[in-house]
Amino acid sequence: MTDSIVVKLGGVAGKNLTKQFFEKIHFWKNQGKQVVVVHGGGNDVSRMMQKLNIQVKIVNGLRVTSKEALDVTKMVLIGQVQPNITNQFLEQGLPVVGLNAADQHCLIGDYVDQAVYGNVGSVTQVNVPFFETLLKDDIIPIIAPLALTEFNQWLNVNADDTACKIAESLKAESLYLLTDVPGIKVADDWIDNLSLEEAADLKHGVLTGGMIPKVEHAVSAVQKGVRNVHITDCIHETGTTISWVEVRV
Ligand SMILES: Nc1ncnc2c1ncn2[C@@H]1O[C@H](COP(=O)(O)OP(=O)(O)O)[C@@H](O)[C@H]1O
Ligand SMILES: CC(=O)N[C@@H](CCC(=O)OP(=O)(O)O)C(=O)O
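^ thats the input. predicted complex w/ adenosine-5'-diphosphate below
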């Protein structure tokens, strides 16, 4: 669906859905674009784990997820973060449906490295026909970053990974990764545009924490056909755009 736009709301971004944000969503809908939303909420998960005296451990931007941590992650993402977002969309008159992997097995995944991360996965398959049916009915799917294995085991998935895989599978024209910074900073400069090669090279040293998987998955999404990936803190700004740059000879 080349007229679809995927928007990922990071934990902080999802809490600050402004009038301007919804104006942009309405604008896209009026243009006939199909909008898909993936939400994060890692900061809320960490807060709840701390309340429950469960150790929070993040390695390479991914939460090490024990069985106990997985239960809390599901509870917070599907029980708190998601309904809070769907409700804000509903208040703006936008038809939405909140989804997780168990709805029509919409996101299938596999373990990243069970010995290091526990129950953490990466999305390997997206139920495209299911999403297309919703999009054709003008519904905005709002999706939690979790997957089920082929054997129905729950996996905690980084939300940028989830958004990028969905954008790739839907062949989305654009992907917005909304976060708490205006883009990617290199030395003291915010970068406007990066080619695939430039973005892939950044991984070594300049990026830390959650920015590591964000850029890694963004690069993969562009390689697999998503035209532009924007890392930004505002849906009206393109922030840092990662895109395919053709080399002319
Ligand atoms: N080179 C970089 N440029 C911009 N932000 C960076 C960079 N390296 C690391 N970061 C960090 O990445 C964070 C955003 O990633 P993350 O915490 O995963 O956000 P989100 O929850 O929105 O996905 C920023 O708050 C910033 O501290
Ligand atoms: C495996 C893994 O790290 N999963 C993430 C899922 C939520 C997320 O990615 O939220 P943000 O986009 O707000 O960071 C986590 O548990 O925090």
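The helical segments are 19-30, 42-51, 67-91, 114-117, 128-136, 159-170, 196-202, 211-223.
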